[in-house]
Write a structure and sequence with these properties.
This protein has 883 residues and is mostly beta strands. Among the domains are: 128 residues, no CATH class; 136 residues, Chondroitinase Ac, Chain A, domain 3; 87 residues, Immunoglobulins (Immunoglobulin-like), CATH 2.60.40.10; 87 residues, Immunoglobulin-like (Sandwich), CATH 2.60.40; 87 residues, Immunoglobulins (Immunoglobulin-like, Sandwich); 79 residues, Sandwich (Immunoglobulin-like). The protein contains one helix and 72 strands. The strands form 16 sheets. Strands 30, 31, 32, 33, 34, 35, 36, 37, 38 and 39 form a ten-stranded antiparallel beta sheet that branches. Strands 41, 43, 44, 46, 47 and 48 form a six-stranded mixed beta sheet that branches. The radius of gyration is 52 Å and the shape is elongated.
Amino acid sequence: MRNIVFKLLICVILLFILSSNRAQNEITVVTLDNPAPGYLLMDSYQPGYIKMIDNSGIVVYKKKIEYNESVRSFVEQSNGLFTYFVHNKFYVINSELVLLDSFTCKNGYETDFHDFKLLNNNHALLLGIKLDTVDMSVIVPGGNPEAILRSSVIQEQDENKNVVWEWKTLDHYLITDATNDVDLTNQQIEWVHTNCVQLDFYGNLLISNRNIDEITKINKQTGNIIWRLGGMQCKNNQFTFLNDTINGFWGFSHQHSVHRLSNGNLLLYDNGNLRPSPFSRAVEYEIDETNKTIRKIWEYKAFPDVFSMFQGSVQRLPNGNTLISWGTNTQQMVVNEVSPEGSRAIDIRNFEPNMGISYMAMRSPINMASKLILIENKGNYNFFDDNNKTAVSLNIQSMIGSGFVSVERHYYTPHNISHEESSPLTTYGHRWVLNNKGISQFTGKIIFKLSEIDSLDSPEKYNIYWRKQEGSGNFTILETSYNKSLGTIESYISSFGEFILGEPPKYIVPEHLSPENNSKKNNVSLALIWEQSAGANSYRLQISQNNIFSAIIIDTLIIGDTSFTYNTFPNNTTYYWRLKSLYDTNESNWSNPWNFTTLLKSPLLIKPINGEQDFPLSGFLEWYSVTGATYYKINISERSDFDSIIVDETGITDTIFSTVLPDYKRNYYFRVKAMNFDNESLWSDTISFTTIDKKMPSVPILLYPPNDTIDMSTSGYLRWNPVIDVTSYNVEISIYPDFLSYSLNGMNIDSTYFFYSGIDYNTIYYWHVASVNELGTSEWSDTWMFVTQKELSVNNDNNNINKLYVLSTGDIFTIIIRNCEPGSYLLKLYDVRGYSVKESFGICYDNDEVAIKINKSDLNSGLYLYRLLISHQIITGKIFIQN
C-alpha cells in the first residue's frame, strides 16, 4: 500500500514538473554555501502564478492561478499548509498545490495582504483595513476636517468563517501615537500600519505596527494591551534597551516580520527608517517582560549597509540559520541566508531593473524529501523515514567538527549536467543534495536504499556521480558498489555536495570525415560530412568560432543525413565543429572538435577596367588589398583559360604591379590571387584588356632653355619632355630658322637631353627635336631660339681695370682687382656645363682695389668659368679649384 501511495505521489509530482519552467532564472544566486533545506517561496514576478525557486535561482515548480495578478505573502503555515494572497483574498493550498480554502475579512473590511495565520484549531487570524472619516482639525493643528483615516483590524474566524474575535487599533491607540514622519494633516492618513500578527505564548497575540514603531502584546481573552515595546521614536515604549544604541539611536524603527522564537526571544526585521543614518537589519532580542528590559543578542546587517525603506521579512531556520528578505532597496539585495556567525549560506540578487521586489521570502521543503540531523559523532545515520523519503543514509567513519547535516531529494534532474569525462546521460531523474554546517572534514559512505527509489531498472548498471557545488561544475563518477542482498548502491565520499545516479553512456559518438581536421583553403560554401552512427536517428551539430564553443554560430538538428552544407562562411576564418548522436530520449557525448579554415577573400581588381582599350605596353595593374593576405600572385595571359601564361609572379607585397607587355594591339587577360604562408584565395575574376595600336611617334615638346632665352652659355644642355613608345631622338641646332644647314646635330639620342658646345658668342641659334621608333621619325618639334652671350674680355687700359689677381686660402678664394674704377662688381661662377654655381658681390671706392670672395668648400675639384660684370664691360676667364 505504501509503495502505491508513493507511486501516485511521484506521478503527481512528475506531471507538475512537466508544467514547470526551469530554464528561467527569476533571480541571481551569487553565493551558495551549504544552506538549509527547502525551496524559496517569494512574491511571483510573473503575474498569475505561484512559484517555488531552488538554490540556483531557477523556478522548479509553478502553478497557474485564477487571476492574472502578482501573488504576495506566499508562506508555509505552522500546520504544514500553504497560503498566498491575490485579488483581495488569502488562498489555502496543500503541498501538491491543490486549492483547499480561501479567507477574506468580514464586517465590511478590506483584507490586508501583510499577514495571515492559520491556527492549529482550524481558525484563522486576518488583518483588515478600516476606513473612517475623521475631523483631524480637532486632533492636530492644521488637520483636515474630512480626513480619511486608515486603521487596522485583527479578525479571528473559525472553520466556518464566522468572526469569533475582533480587535481594532483605533479603540486602543491614539492617532497621535504615529511617529513624526507620518503627516497627520494629510487628507488620507495611514497612521498605524499593522503588518504582522503572531500567536504568542498562552494564546496571547503579538502585533507589529510599523507607523507607530511598536510591537504590542495583547491579552487574547480580554483584548487589553499587556505591554508596548518600541524604539527611540515610539511614543509609548515601556521597555529599557540595555545594549542596542547606535549613533545615539536605540531600538528599532518601522519594523516588519516579528516572531516569538521557541527560546522566548523576539526576532524581527528592522527597516531602520528613522535612524539618523538609516540601515536595515535582522535582529534578535532577549526580552524580560517582568522587569521591562530588552537586550540585543544577535543581529545581521549587510556590508556595506543596505537600507530598505519598505517591506522585508526574517525566518529562523531549523539549522539555526536566518533567512532575510531585504525588501525595497537600491542595492539589488533580495535574500540572504546567514549563519549565527554572520557568514552567508546564500546570497541572492536581482540585477533586472523591472523584476520587482518581494515583500517577504520563506524557505520550505515543499515538494522535496528532506531531513536534518545533528551529527556529533561518527556512526550510521538514516535520513529517510515515512515522512522523509530521501532514500539516503550516511556511514560517517571519521570527522572533524560537528553540526547539522541535511539531505534533500529533488524530484527532477540537475541543472547544467556536465561530466569531466563523459556525461552520465542516462540518469534516474532525481538529484540529491547534502549540506552541512560545522563539519570541516569527514570520510564515510553514502548509501542509497533501492527500495525507496521506485522504477530504478538494472541498478547494477548505475554509478553514483558527485559534484561539490549544487547546480554548477562537472560531475565526477564515484567508485560504486551494488549490494544485491542489501538492496543498496553505495560509494565512499569525503565531501558534501550534489549527487545523482546515472548509467555510463554507451552511445556512439559521430566520427568526422570531411573537411580534414586543421585543413586550410576551404571554400566558403562547404559541406561537413561524418560517419553514420549505428542506431542514431538524428544528430546535433554545432559550429563555433572557438574550441570551447562559447561563440556558436550554428546549433542545428540533422535528421536522416550525415552531412550539412553551409554556403556563407566568412573568408579567412577558422571554425570548430562537433557532433553528437541522438537516440530517441538519449544522446552520445560530443565528438572531439575538428577545425577548418576558409579561403582568403579573392582580390577585387581595379585597373585596368574590364574591356579597356589602348592600354600602354608599359603600364600598371591594380587591385584592392585583402584582409589576411601578406602577398599576391598575378597571372597575365593571351588566353582566357590561362593555358599560356606570359606573366606568373608570386610574392608581390604591393597592390600595384608594373608590367611591360610584348605586343601592340593584343588582347590580354589578368587575374590575381591573395596569399599568406598557409592560406590563399581563389583567383579573382578575370579582366581582359587590349594594348595600344602601334603608331608613328608623337612630336616631342621642348622644355629647356625656354624659347627666346638670351645670354646663353656657348656650352650646355638642351632638354625636352619624354614621348611614349619611342626608341630615340634626333636634335638639330642651326643659325638658320629654316635649318638650311646646321651647326650641331645629334642622332639616335636615347635620353631626353643633348649637350652642346663650341658654338659662337653673341649669336642667335635655332633648335628642334624629333622622336624615333620602329615605324619612323616624327615631325620636328616647334622651333625654339636662344642667343649666346657676348664674348668676354679684360680691358687693360689704365682708365679701366689695371690688374686682376686670384688668391686661395683654405675654403676661400679671392679675386682682387687693383686700380679699379668706383662702382659695383658682380662675380658669377659656372661649371663646365654652363650652370651657375656661385656668385658674390663687391664695391670699389676711389680707384682703390676691390676683393671679391667665394666659399669653395661645397664645390668639387675641377675647372670652372667665371664672369666678372662691371657697369660697362664683362671679364671672363677660367679658374681651377682644388679641394
